[in-house]
Design goal:
By secondary structure, the chain is of the alpha/beta class. Helix content is 37%, strand content 15%. Helix 9 links the parallel strand 6 and strand 7.
């Protein structure tokens, strides 16, 4: 019976996935696939009721009535019709890979269909490998950090071989570990050459073994990259795969060997280069006309082939899109600008990204518990003093919160085990310095502390260490899990402690860098799971996957979008244990990450919008430059892009960052008092719905009044997002087009008694008085602002407050805030003024005193749509190098 069912399911799966391209609906394809499956088992005399049950399960498993989210694409021009998914009907490589994902890896059908759909869009954008005329296609695939980009380009490579591409070169990072990890994956999931210790096939060979007609040769192995001494020359007229490191010696050797083959055999084959982490090393950052070495060599390798395609994969496309679109040199040819296409991979189901860790909607009343655990002074002081590799000896012992984070990691393993996730990989990341000597010192310290922790857990149930773990479980783990928006099982301390005794003996401490022989070989531990504390730096901050990452202790910082986002290894798949994840970091880093997360979401929404409007990659690059936030990428990478202004259409701008200076607050109080006294006679007080928050609203305020206020109001110097001078400049630009001429201004009044327990705090603006300031910044305590030059109080605008000038009943079911902002006339802007409660800890800790006549003033502006022509706002330098 089980054999019959397996044959039924396999027949349905293979035919359904193939037939979808031929039928107008999924239902029709599924019906035909079921007919074929029933035909296969008709001689086995299975009861009709049982077959109907299997059929219903197939419909459910394959989400037959579910439409896959369409992959958004930006293209330079209409694609030719050379590629059609029907080409892959019965194709060997893609069919084998797809079935492997479903039947062996047990991937969700929706995820597999998403890979199918997105790789089809990429294939449409490539050149036809059967075409004899030259082609040169270049594009970029935008994914998410730690989201499965490798699975996507693995699917792309399999399809490329099916349709006729002969050579695929994968550029895989700048470290040996990542190259070896990628080679292993492609050996299993493309080449089909891997076997286990018993000689049994591993990977796609479990579905179909290779036939003589489906052999893929490779110049590289897990152990060996391209070298100047080739280990044997292969005929490139047959399918060949190479996985190479982005290293000048390696790429130089590869270029020379390819040129030798071309000259010796008059080589003319279609080639595909897949550039993993395409914003790392590949981008030309030279200050002169000669391109940087890695960039130059990649371009020279492309020039070897007349029929060539370059597809970059990255989660941070800023650098790749901000290079000159027309840069070209005689020897290297065109730069790697993705001139032809930009594909956005949909966010995978169950992927935990910026939205899950940060308040990306910037709502002051976001109810989710934070997973950030701010570092306090004892930890910060340890690493602040380590500035060079010679400072390694300054790390003398593990600081308090680093030890706490290790205890939290042990708790995570124990709780996951109790939840039924036993024998799964568990990883902790400690990233405090890019210097290897410092990493070695930290690793030695962690090793020593961990041995002591293990000893106490095993032999002294009532020790301070065990009591500390118990305290974390009772005061942090349980409250966070209870508040998490899921139903989560809870376990007694005794159950957790018994698991701790077992799992603490299985944790290993690795140092991951060029000085160490430790390797994150999860594959070796796939049966029992690897439990590892990984101490490292740059090697851990890109590409290398940390399986089951739950606890991160992170100290390094950067203000560059691409670098900062790529260091966020905590994004990924965290099914069943997201509530246990923690990030131990400084307030400044947490603040920068949240701002970055907000920007990433906004830019991705802009991408989706432009894809619907059939825009080009270059038009998206121009939009990207308009984003009102921190430095996108390294100035060297941005050398061809000049920002001349900022576009605020359809955004909410709210002040979160404040200067730690009394003059900053007193000045803003004074200019706000001037504004309020001017509008005082026009204010109408109202409450929205059943809420207790009061609003003093003045409508049809002249733009000159608002501009005078915004010109005088001070935003934090060097603010990464809300800059009053740029906002003023934007308003004046659109005023010339008849936009933002009339404003609604609302002063927000706090509730009589806030739920945080703070009593009301009256505020006096000259002759105008409100009963209480608004309580904000309670959650900002985790950002540990004390003593810093700038303080981040987090979001100040509560849900839907920016829309109090609209008909709230008409928008109550609308979730997309951009769509709601479109309802506002382009002539009308919305300005909210927030007198902030000074007794919140973040303000109370400052070295000066607030009063009724001086409180912190926050502002928020909700912008409508605009007809402003972006090309008039920006200049993208297209000068040919």
């Amino acid at each position: 019976m089980n054999e019959a069912r397996g044959l039924f399911e396999q027949t349905f799966a293979t035919n359904y996935m193939n037939l979808k391209s031929f039928f107008p609906s999924q239902e029709k394809a599924a019906e035909k696939a079921l007919d074929l499956a029933k035909l296969v088992i008709q001689e086995q005399q299975i009861e009709a009721g049982l077959i109907n049950q299997w059929s219903l399960e197939m419909y459910k498993d394959y989400n037959v009535d579910f439409d896959v989210i369409k992959t958004p694409v930006l293209r330079l021009e209409e694609v030719s019709d050379w590629y059609n998914p029907k080409l892959l009907m019965g194709a060997f490589f893609w069919t084998r890979y797809r079935d492997y994902l479903i039947r062996v890896k047990h991937w969700d059908q929706e995820a597999v269909r998403s890979i199918d759909d997105s790789t089809n869009e990429i294939m449409r954008s490539l050149g036809n490998p059967k075409e004899i005329h030259p082609f040169d296609k270049r594009g970029l695939v935008l994914g998410y950090v730690q989201s499965g980009k490798t699975a996507n380009f693995t699917g792309l490579i399999n399809k490329a071989y099916d349709v006729g591409y002969k050579l695929v070169i994968v550029l895989s990072g700048v470290h040996n570990d990542l190259r070896a990890q990628t080679q292993l994956r492609l050996d299993e999931e493309v080449i089909g050459s891997r076997v286990d210790r018993e000689g049994k096939p591993v990977g796609v060979a479990q579905i179909y073994r290779n036939t003589p007609n489906h052999i893929i040769s490779t110049w590289t192995t897990v152990e060996r990259d391209i070298s100047s001494e080739p280990s044997g020359m292969f005929n490139l007229n047959q399918r060949t795969l190479m996985v190479v490191k982005k290293n000048s010696i390696v790429l130089e050797s590869l270029k020379n060997q390819l040129e030798y083959q071309k000259n010796l055999f008059n080589l003319d084959i279609p080639a595909l280069i897949v550039d993993d982490e395409a914003d790392q090393a590949s981008v030309d950052t030279s200050k002169n006309e000669d391109p940087k070495t890695i960039n130059k060599l990649i371009r020279q390798i492309l020039e070897v082939f007349n029929r060539r395609c370059y597809v970059g994969y990255t989660a941070t496309p800023f650098a790749n899109l901000l290079i000159s679109a027309e840069a070209k040199t005689e020897e290297e040819g065109k730069d790697l600008y993705p001139k032809d296409f930009l594909v956005g991979l949909p966010k995978p189901k169950e992927y935990c990204g910026p939205e899950e860790f940060f308040n990306v909607e910037e709502e002051a009343d976001d109810p989710r518990p934070s997973l950030i655990r701010p570092l306090r002074d004892p930890d910060i002081e340890v690493f602040t003093g380590i500035k060079t590799k010679g400072d390694a000896d300054k790390f003398e012992e593990v600081p308090p919160q680093m030890e706490e984070s290790i205890l939290a990691f042990l708790l995570t393993i124990a709780v996951r085990n109790l939840r039924g996730q036993r024998n799964k990989h568990n990883s902790m990341l400690i990233h405090t310095s890019r210097f290897k000597d410092v990493q070695s010192s930290v690793k030695d310290g962690v090793d020593k502390v961990f041995m002591e922790i293990t000893k106490q857990i095993q032999y002294n149930k009532y020790s301070e260490t065990v009591e500390a773990i118990k305290r974390i479980y009772k005061e942090d783990t349980i409250p966070t899990s209870r508040a998490w928006p899921e139903d989560i099982l809870e376990f007694s301390w005794e159950e957790v402690y018994q698991e701790l005794r077992d799992c603490s003996k299985k944790v290993r401490v690795f140092e991951i860098n060029g000085n160490s022989k430790d390797a994150l070989d999860y594959h070796q531990y796939k049966e029992d799971g690897l439990n590892v504390i990984a101490v490292g730096g740059d090697k851990l901050s890109r590409g290398l996957t940390l399986e089951g990452l739950s606890i991160t202790y992170y100290f390094r910082n950067t203000l560059m979008y691409d670098t900062l986002m790529q260091m966020g290894r905590w994004f990924g798949y965290r099914k069943g244990y997201m509530d246990l994840c923690r990030i131990y970091t400084t307030g400044e880093i947490a603040s920068n990450f949240e701002h970055l997360a907000i920007a990433m979401i906004e830019l991705r929404r802009e991408f989706d919008r432009l894809a619907l409007a059939n825009k080009t990659p270059l038009e998206y690059a121009v939009k990207m430059l308009s984003h009102p936030t921190m430095t996108l990428t390294s100035p060297l990478k941005m050398k061809n892009a000049a920002i001349t202004n900022v576009i605020y259409r359809l955004t909410l701008q709210q002040t979160r960052i404040y200067e730690n200076k009394e003059t900053f607050f007193s000045h803003n109080m004074k200019v706000t008092e001037n504004l309020i006294n001017k509008l005082h006679p026009r204010f109408m007080k109202t409450h929205i719905g059943s809420g207790k928050t009061g609003y003093y609203i003045a409508r049809e305020v002249e733009v000159s009044t608002v501009l005078n206020f915004l010109s005088e109001y001070k935003t934090s110097q060097g603010a990464d997002k809300v800059d009053n001078s740029k906002i003023v400049n934007y308003i004046r630009q659109v005023n010339d087009m008849g936009e933002l001429l009339h404003w609604t201004v609302a002063v927000v009044e706090g509730e009589p008694r806030d739920k945080s327990g703070l009593e009301k705090f009256p505020v006096q603006f000259g002759t105008f008085k409100i009963d209480s300031a608004v309580v904000r910044g309670v959650k900002a305590e985790e950002y540990n602002n004390q003593g810093q030059a700038k303080i981040d109080i987090r979001a100040i605008v509560a849900s839907r407050q920016e829309f109090i000038d609209l008909d709230l009943s008409a928008i109550k079911n609308m979730k997309d805030k951009q769509e709601i902002r479109k309802l506002r006339s382009t002539e009308k802007g919305m300005l909210l003024v927030y007198p902030l409660h000074p007794k919140v800890k973040v303000f109370e800790s400052l070295s000066f005193t607030f009063s009724e006549k001086m409180v912190p003033i926050g502002i928020a502006i909700s912008f409508p749509d605009s007809k402003l022509d972006d090309s008039k706002i920006y200049e993208v330098n297209k000068t040919i190098k």
